[in-house]
Amino acid sequence: MQNELPNADLESPAPVLPTPAPAPVKLTEVSSLTLEGLTRFLTEELGERSFRAGQLYRWMHQRGATSFDEMTDLSKALREKLKQRAEIVPLVKDAEQRSVDGTIKYRWKTRDGRYIESVYMPSEDRKTLCVSTQVGCAMACTFCMTGTLGLKRNLTPGEIVAQVHAVNREVRKNEGLETLRPLSNLVFMGMGEPLHNFENLKTSLAILQSQDGPNFSHRHITVSTVGLVPMIERFGQETDVKLAISLNASTDEQRSKTMPVNRKWNIAALLDACRKFPLRQGRRITFEYVLLRDFNDTDEDAARLIQLLEGIPAKVNLIPYNENPGLGFQTTMDQRAERFRELLCEGHVAAFIRQNRGRDIAGACGQLANRGGENASESSQSPELP
Ligand code: SAH
Q: What more does the record tell us (predicted)?
């Protein structure tokens, strides 16, 4: 053996060692960057001129491009460079279910073989998408299907935004529309607790609200939280979109039973944060109240709710409970729900019964969950939607 080191004669040429494989370069997830972040990446890391960032950003976030090859006004060389150094993290459509009321539930497969869901809800005057912010959820509300999963991981800003791009594409195709962004409204009420993934939520909002991106108005985006009190304050300071609070109870005893977060920040602490919340003129905080039969839907509950909300510019959305088998709660009867609403209105609290969308496809509030999606072999067979 010519190059065996131990016997190597000093005169002989240096041994030829196998060239080590180049260390894999970690690709930068460019679909998760704000325009500022992307500009920094392109100029500092790739040595490109800054206007290229705007081009790339508009491809991703105005047109929803999912590959560099589509970006025909970027030079071939730049597209190749991007492929070497950057990636647009995809969400692959795995399944869809259509409700008789026009609601469509989409299930996406993430790159690491997880599943998340988004729900499209068209109505006469708006096209709303309900987006997810986490795979699973750590909040463990006892009536909620996602809550039974536990938290698997946070979604990246790119994955949050990708739900919007993908559904825009679907709506264009299904409804034969030319407009780049047929969706008009976004609600962060899908899987996960948005304020528990605050940095990525914030970045996704920056992208979704940007003029070079989908350009959603702050008036058309609502973020719903279980009530992570310290984050509500930051949310008010650092974003300008609308706030919804999942109250769901009229006493601490009730709320702590169904929403473990209440043991840390009780109703008084939560409403105190709401009172301090910097509201834009004319805006109100939405309080969601899931009606659970004989649990939180009595006349006394309505009276207590009126008291609790005193002094807060509030609107109450009464949500008919979507029963999840095995979780042990029942839906309030329509008549009781209507009476509850009337009582609130008589107490000068604006209250509405939320229309129940996609109930026949388990696409309604609190029914998004997926137990089949942990590993790749199952996923390739497209398990039934729950
Ligand atoms: N984590 C956030 C957003 C996701 S849940 C939050 O808690 O606000 C969105 C809304 O659906 C919440 O108001 C929640 O209370 C409600 N919800 C959960 N499960 C439900 C169910 N089975 N039926 C009706 N509403 C439900």
A: Reaction proceeds by a ping-pong mechanism involving intermediate methylation of a conserved cysteine residue.
273 and 335 housed in the same domain: yes
Q: Looking at the predicted structure, is the pLDDT value of residue 73 above 80?
A: yes
Distance CA 46, CA 41 (A): 7
Region of 294 on the Ramachandran plot (φ > 0 left; ψ -120 to 50 alpha; else beta): left
* Residue 52, domain CATH: 1.10.150.530
pLDDT in tens, 116-157: 999 999 999 999 999 999 999 999 999 999 999 999 999 999
Question: Do 108 and 62 share a structural domain?
Answer: no
Total count of domains within the chain: 2
Helix (H) or strand (E) holding 143: none
Is the pLDDT score of 279 beyond 50? yes
- Ligand 1 in reach of 368 Cβ (< 6 A): no
Catalytic site residue from 48, 87, 117, 159:
117
Q: How far apart are CA 293 and CA 274, in angstroms?
A: 27
**pLDDT confidence bin for 11, thresholds 50/70/90:** low
Same structural domain for residues 192 and 318? yes
Is-catalytic flag, 4? Answer: no
Tell me if 292 CB under 6 Å of ligand 1.
no
